[in-house]
Amino acid sequence: MKQHFNKSIGFYGESLACTILKSNGYKLLERNFSCKFGEIDIIALKDHILCFIEVKTRTSSKYGFPCESINYYKQKKLGRLAQFYVIKKGLTNHFLRFDALEIFLNSIDNNYDFNLIENAIYF
Q1: For each successive 10 residues of the chain (123 residues), what is the average pLDDT?
Q2: What is the domain-level CATH number for residue 54?
Q3: Which keywords appear in this protein's UniProt record, sorted alphabetically (predicted)?
Q4: Is the pTM higher than 0.70?
Q5: Terminus of the chain with fewer CB atoms < 10 Å: N or C?
């Protein structure tokens, strides 16, 4: 039951993320891009920069801030995914950026806050 709840929260968070990113000038290219290396939540363009966005949604900070879950292993995985995507789509002439979008859901009043972190991961 908890796993289903977490997936629902994640899906809802990614839907909110699309709205947030569009309103912040991002042009969405892909959502939940998957390949043999894993999945990237959102791929978008902003100011001619190809952005790979990891979305983390939480209902509380009980287990820390959302971005704290993007550990070294996850960062390396995102790098491999981005490299695969760029080669597959022939986008090798773009600058790349890895952003993170933290979404905090408030179950009391159905509102949310967010924190968009550009250049959250460096390689």
Answers
A1: 65 95 98 95 97 93 79 92 96 95 88 94 78
A2: 3.40.1350.10
A3: Endonuclease, Hydrolase, Nuclease
A4: yes
A5: N
